[in-house]
Amino acid sequence: MYRLLFSLVLCRFDAESVHHLTVRALTLLARLPYLKKVVHRLMAPHDPALRVSAFGVHFPSPFGLAAGFDKDAACAEALSAIGFGHVEVGTVTAHAQPGNPRPRLFRVATQRAIINRMGFNNRGAAAAAARLRRTRGVPTVVGVNIGKTKVVPEHAAVDDYVTSAKELAPLADYLVVNVSSPNTPGLRNLQAVELLRPLLEAVKQVADATPRRTPLLVKIAPDLADEDIDAVADLALELRLDGIIATNTTIRHPGETGGLSGRPLKTRSVAVLRRLRARVGDRLTLVSVGGVENADDVWERLLAGATLVQGYTGMIYGGPLWAYRLHRDLSRRLVRHGIPAITDVIGRTAP
Ligand SMILES: Cc1cc2nc3c(=O)[nH]c(=O)nc-3n(C[C@H](O)[C@H](O)[C@H](O)COP(=O)(O)O)c2cc1C
Question: Is the pTM of the predicted complex or chain greater than 0.90?
């Protein structure tokens, strides 16, 4: 049904306009407490066998929505209601900014992929904090992903991230330092350990100072060389971070300028996960993202050592029932294999 709607109607409209319409519909749902609860009862994962815990946070399932969809924390509860086990909002920057000029979001439907050069369009940390402060009507695990404001020069990046962290860490179930989006000039340079160390140290101080000690993760690019992945992993261990999210979009592709996501990213994303797992074992929580389309993909990432898995592009092609279906299939798979809990799958085939 959604496939038909997509190929006959949605793909005729500009991708970003469809996105804004979807966010508006979900924001409306987020404001309707009764309907939101009904949808949550019908679509959210309730199978106890799917529950996982990571860095002290309880998740109803290992699968959630990756950063970039709900940039302003406008509809996290509605996204939880339609089935995502957690919602990573953002990327939020300290100051509001418009992002790059449109068009900046392109479908590559033949490959079930997307190219985007959004450039962190968002209303800024204070506005996101105000949204997050509103009471939650349905249980929602919310991660907050923070990035650098475009006009802030690289040498002032640490203060910029710290401003966002101070606003948002107290309101987040976990906090993510994003140094891997390709559409903010210079951002990915911050992945170099000599720049990353002071950045993570400063943000960690803020995260550690919240009443609950907010867990802190770093999100990395798939285009890092293998030795650089190891270096970030070692740094994350040394600084006692809670986890690593791998991966963001790739710039290694032909076509429009921007980051590529979806099916073509799958192989590299899995390779980065395996490398991280080989390096850190179970000492850090690994969150795998990139090219996840279905329950088979989630299963593969769990086997390879991810505790949490995320997706974004899959929803654009899979539609609003995507997360619901994926969880249904995961539950069936557990039953079929006679495995009592999804946590038993994590790291089973890791080296
Ligand atoms: C339109 C779009 C916007 C994105 N914006 C962000 C962002 O603001 N911050 C971020 O960390 N990742 C962002 N991402 C990357 C996703 O979170 C994810 O890492 C990537 O798309 C790979 O997952 P996928 O193949 O399931 O889409 C964005 C992705 C897309 C498609």
Answer: yes
